[in-house]
């Protein structure tokens, strides 16, 4: 159905247009008419048209003025101007307003119908686009929560999260560089600051999750994570690297209001812990940990980590970001970046009032041992308790600040180097073990899965590592070993081709012959003949 509005101050013209359109389109069209500029605007408000045939010269508002007024509340109308005045200025203005056609009276039936058909096509196209957009939006309403959950899951659980960071931010259209975490905890009732029936509440959460998401995103422009026990994690992108006191109070207030609305709409009790602002990426996990500490150390409904008594407080200004950056540079094996952080740390320590050499030695030792421990737990270096027995003596033996800084720099370089070499040695060791297994078992029907199980790593990672270390894939290497054996047997034995095929790990002589010719350029028989 198309709603068509005809506007002309001549009654004969109106009746003529109405008759032409009705006789050809019948019930497909609902036609309304108007004789003045004001009347056409009012009619367009009451019965929003799809198509409007507009005369330029009408009493009161002109056709051009009427089009402008209608477009203020309806931008989708397809306009066709019909006029007895063939003036360039009118045509130019009509084009600027997006008018589809400019027809000069008298207009014959064929032109009216052709124009009407063209306008209807345009209306159909607009409707289809609107329908497609709605379908896409409906699909996104299903997909976006899954992407948000995946993003938050990766932040909290994946060590190699940085690999996917940019992809997630592009998919979710996150423009900000920073953010903070809110952990919402729920249960049946509050007892001594603890929410009861966590297991039952997590089951119930599946029913109220969509309501929770709607309310949370009404208070914060946030990403909502999956249900994790009796908790749901929110990630709130933030414009600045830190929040000042007023901003922190505003965040807490808004969170309190959110909790109040959650409890009014959902049959559960809620508490929320809020972490500090961090750079979006792997450091966001720290904001989550802070939010959890805030929940654990307080019985309040809403608590910010900064409001937890003595929680991660430092007497003065402590360079948390610098320490995090130092750890990250070391874990990334970025020697230059890590050494630059060491220089910055030393400058900070030297500028602290009342700091002794012993204080600095302890801090340096803490930082070095901290990254070593982190590297060990991530499987990047080997470790034994006796490895560090000389650290205290070495630091105490430093004659001054420069020697202490040199020890710090050298130890940082050594850790980065050990991480790199440990991974390289481990990779080489795994591949050498795999090669040895292939050489001992190439006569059998061995597969990549079997060899990867032998070296105790996943098939996918083994395949990637094997190619990285050898320059070729597993099948190519196995084929090379088998054909090398076949060549030796063809040279030095009286075995038949069929027997050599079996001795080389192939069960089908025809397949063996094809593979041999592919790599050697001749069949096994031709290869043997050449040697005689």
Automatic annotation (TrEMBL):
<feature type="domain" description="HTH araC/xylS-type">
    <location>
        <begin position="432"/>
        <end position="530"/>
    </location>
</feature>
<feature type="modified residue" description="4-aspartylphosphate">
    <location>
        <position position="55"/>
    </location>
</feature>
<feature type="domain" description="Response regulatory">
    <location>
        <begin position="3"/>
        <end position="120"/>
    </location>
</feature>
<dbReference type="Pfam" id="PF12833">
    <property type="entry name" value="HTH_18"/>
</dbReference>
<dbReference type="InterPro" id="IPR018062">
    <property type="entry name" value="HTH_AraC-typ_CS"/>
</dbReference>
<keyword id="KW-0805">Transcription regulation</keyword>
<keyword id="KW-0804">Transcription</keyword>
<dbReference type="InterPro" id="IPR018060">
    <property type="entry name" value="HTH_AraC"/>
</dbReference>
<dbReference type="InterPro" id="IPR011006">
    <property type="entry name" value="CheY-like_superfamily"/>
</dbReference>
<dbReference type="InterPro" id="IPR020449">
    <property type="entry name" value="Tscrpt_reg_AraC-type_HTH"/>
</dbReference>
<dbReference type="Pfam" id="PF17853">
    <property type="entry name" value="GGDEF_2"/>
</dbReference>
<dbReference type="InterPro" id="IPR001789">
    <property type="entry name" value="Sig_transdc_resp-reg_receiver"/>
</dbReference>
<dbReference type="Pfam" id="PF00072">
    <property type="entry name" value="Response_reg"/>
</dbReference>
<keyword id="KW-0597">Phosphoprotein</keyword>
<dbReference type="InterPro" id="IPR009057">
    <property type="entry name" value="Homeodomain-like_sf"/>
</dbReference>
<keyword id="KW-0238">DNA-binding</keyword>
<comment type="function">
    <text>May play the central regulatory role in sporulation. It may be an element of the effector pathway responsible for the activation of sporulation genes in response to nutritional stress. Spo0A may act in concert with spo0H (a sigma factor) to control the expression of some genes that are critical to the sporulation process.</text>
</comment>
<protein>
    <recommendedName>
        <fullName>Stage 0 sporulation protein A homolog</fullName>
    </recommendedName>
</protein>
<dbReference type="InterPro" id="IPR041522">
    <property type="entry name" value="CdaR_GGDEF"/>
</dbReference>
